[in-house]
Write a structure and sequence with these properties.
Mean pLDDT of chain B: 90
Number of helices of chain B: 10
Distance between the termini of chain B: 30 Å
CATH class of chain A: Mainly Alpha
Mean pLDDT of chain A: 85
Number of domains of chain A: 1
CATH superfamily of chain A: ABC transporter involved in vitamin B12 uptake, BtuC
CATH architecture of chain A: Orthogonal Bundle
Strand content of chain B: 15-25%
CATH superfamily of chain B: P-loop containing nucleotide triphosphate hydrolases
Number of domains of chain B: 1
Largest sheet of chain B: 6 strands, mixed
Distance between the termini of chain A: 18 Å
Number of helices of chain A: 16
Number of strands of chain B: 10
Strand content of chain A: under 5%
Oligomer: heterodimer
CATH architecture of chain B: 3-Layer(aba) Sandwich
CATH topology of chain A: ABC transporter involved in vitamin B12 uptake, BtuC
Low-confidence stretches of chain A: 1-11, 359-363
CATH topology of chain B: Rossmann fold
CATH class of chain B: Alpha Beta
Order of helices and strands of chain A: HHHHHHEEHHHHHHHHHH
Low-confidence stretches of chain B: none
Shape of chain B: globular
Shape of chain A: globular
Structural class of chain B: alpha/beta
Helix content of chain A: over 70%
Order of helices and strands of chain B: HEEEHEEHEHHHEHEHEEHH
Number of strands of chain A: 2
């Protein structure tokens, strides 16, 4: 970008790279298709890898058999089928869904707040969910409805309650919309974090479980849980994609957005609600997985530019890829927390991209 | 005055009927009447805090009057839905810090938002309008450049291009020439004249520079203390006594203009 844009003839070695980058920027749809293909391949690979290795062909054959009833003529053991279908499939798909959800929510909050440091958790959803989960773990009664325990329900409700409180409080403030939201989110988040610290202090034996929620992971993924969370994520994401032009309008500020035909107050409330819904659904099934929501949208912007029309769908695809990959890594390394792996894989890659971008990208 | 204007001129494209504007309890503009005909070029001048920008905010629908009506095309501004208003009025945005890096053409493309289909996004007609707007402000050589690398003058031209791409019959500007060097000031003014002459766009601009107002705008409104105290051709409006009264300065410190005692060649 820098070489061509400055009008300086690009060095020969750089030309191809520049051309490739220009092509990516011009054809975000083709890029999206490409990333989706990569995602599909990653999903098949991730299902195959593990303590029991299963060939990609077998994975595909089992999938075709279970989903479409097509017989490919391949044979497999009942144990393989149980591993693929009951254990790894829901886990890998949950990882993909959560990655997509957090990335699209991150892109939404960054655009909405006009703040590159925003992530899905910035307005208190994380602290709300964490406190909810901690409280649920401290309640000695165990209620389970369709495999949805108190922890999931409380985490979901906690996240949504937190954002609601933040939104309501922010409207009382004298500051203009976005600043007031950010500051209120910070204040409420701190308050909830204090509650969480207190809960952990009192938790005794359940401390480890609370800690596991804070780190996040997909060990507990099952089909029913996925089936409950997925519609929420899909609905929220569709609503956000529909509003791509709102996020674009906000690029030049709230007044400019209003002048470009955006009903800022209304759209801000709707986008906040959608982003929070998606985040809460993801957090409820997986705990707090950081990094994806902050960094994936930036990586995507570095490749395709700032238009939300390209950034949102590509964030969905890339976020899903990152967490499928990170979860695979986490499993292969002996079930270490997925957030650790996603940061280990993603952070150096992000730093590398930032270095390459040179000009034109300041946080 | 409103009635008189309505009978003489064609139906106004912007009209204020005894409009009072306030922020909370603080009244900024009191009982303002104003009619602007399609295709006019109107400059608003006056000291800081006089209410010029507030008047603009009423036109663009950011501020609803506490009394009176503001109409665009004979329809009250508050009745427009925002996208429909954005297709009637293009506002050249204030220079803002961009949260993300964006290319010249990506910024100008924002002007097409009110015309865009929410699902399909920009269509070939939108892309053509963007390309034409960039060409018109003469920024073709900056295609592909990060907008944050541009000079202030180039950025202002970029924002004018955004408003041109919006293809609205009214263009509103709030101090479009502050921070700009002489050449870019002139370039922005010439662009406005060209837009007005070729497309019949109505131009309404707040200006601080009385020289620019007098030179490039056939009609000047002087706003002081929340009132429109004078309205007419620069020669009639920007007189030496009025400048002394409104701005509290001796017009002798300005270069020659309508306020000069000796009639100066424009």
């Amino acid at each position: 970008m820098t070489a061509t844009s400055a009008g300086i003839p690009a060095a020969r070695t750089r030309t191809r790279r520049t051309l490739l980058r220009e092509a990516a920027r011009r054809h975000p749809r083709a890029l999206f298709g490409g990333v989706m293909v990569v995602l599909g391949a990653l999903i098949v690979l991730a299902i195959g890898f593990g303590t029991v290795a299963i060939a990609p062909g077998t994975t595909v054959a089992i999938t075709l058999h279970r989903v479409l009833g097509i017989e490919t003529g391949a044979t497999w053991s009942a144990a393989s089928e149980a591993i693929v279908w009951d254990l790894r499939f829901p886990r890998v798909l949950t990882a993909a869904m959560v990655g997509a959800a957090l990335a699209v929510a991150g892109a939404t909050f960054q655009g909405l707040l006009r703040n590159p440091l925003a992530d899905p958790y910035v307005l208190g959803t994380a602290s709300g969910a964490a406190l909810g989960a901690a409280v649920a773990l401290l309640i000695p009664v165990r209620i389970v409805v369709v495999e949805f325990g108190l922890v999931h329900a409380f985490a979901f409700v906690g996240a949504l309650l937190a954002i609601t409180v933040v939104y309501r409080l922010s409207r009382l403030s004298a500051w203009s919309g976005m600043t007031s939201l950010l500051l209120t989110g910070y204040a409420v988040g701190s308050l909830l974090a204090a509650g969480l610290a207190m809960a952990m202090y009192l938790s005794g034996a359940t401390l480890r479980q609370i800690f596991a929620f804070l780190l996040g992971g997909f060990e507990a993924a099952t089909w029913p849980r996925l089936a409950i969370a997925l519609p929420l994520v899909v609905i929220g994401t569709a609503g956000i994609l529909w509003r791509a032009r709102v996020l674009n309008g906000l690029m030049l500020g709230e007044e400019a957005a209003a002048h470009l035909g955006v009903d800022v107050k209304r759209e801000r409330a709707i986008l906040l609600a959608l982003g929070s819904l998606v985040t809460a659904a993801a957090v409820a099934v997986s705990g707090l997985i950081g990094f994806v929501g902050l960094v994936v949208p930036h990586v995507v912007r570095l490749v395709v530019g700032p238009s939300a029309r390209a950034v949102l769908p590509l964030s969905i695809a890339a976020g899903a890829c990152l967490l499928v990959l990170a979860d695979l890594g986490a499993r292969l390394l002996g079930d270490i927390p997925v957030g650790v792996v996603s940061a280990l894989v993603g952070a150096p890659f992000f730093l590398f991209l930032l270095r390459r971008a040179q000009s034109g990208y300041e946080l | 005055m409103t009635d008189l204007g309505a009978t003489v001129a064609p139906a106004p494209i912007i009209e204020f009927r005894s409009v009072t504007l306030a922020y909370g309890r603080r009244e900024i503009v009191r009982a303002a009447d104003l009619a602007i005909a399609p295709g006019e070029r109107v400059a608003l001048v006056g000291p800081n805090g006089a209410g010029k920008s507030t008047l603009l905010r009423a036109v663009t629908g950011l501020l609803t009057p506490v009394a009176g009506r503001v109409e665009v095309d004979g329809r009250e501004v508050a009745d427009f839905d925002r996208a429909a208003l954005a297709r009637r009025i293009a506002v050249v945005p204030q220079l803002a810090v961009l949260p993300f890096s964006a290319r010249v053409e990506e910024i100008v493309a924002l002007g097409r938002l009110p015309h865009e289909d929410p699902i399909r996004g920009p269509r070939p007609a939108d892309r053509a309008a963007v390309a034409e707007a960039i060409d018109r402000v003469g920024l073709g050589r900056l295609l592909g450049r990060d907008a944050r690398e541009l000079s202030l003058g180039e950025r202002q031209l970029l924002l004018v291009a955004l408003a041109i791409a919006q293809a609205a019959p009214i263009v509103v500007l709030d101090e479009p020439t502050v921070h700009l060097d002489l050449r870019h000031q002139v370039e922005v003014m010439e662009l406005l004249i060209d837009l007005n002459a070729r497309d019949g766009t109505t131009v309404l601009a707040v200006l601080h520079d009385l020289n620019l107002a007098a030179r490039y705008f056939p009609r000047v409104l002087v706003v002081a203390d929340g009132r429109i105290v004078a309205d007419g051709a620069p020669a009639d409006v920007l007189t030496a006594p009025r400048i002394r009264e409104v701005f509290g300065v001796d017009p002798g410190i300005l270069s020659s203009g309508p306020w000069s005692t000796m009639p100066a060649g424009r």
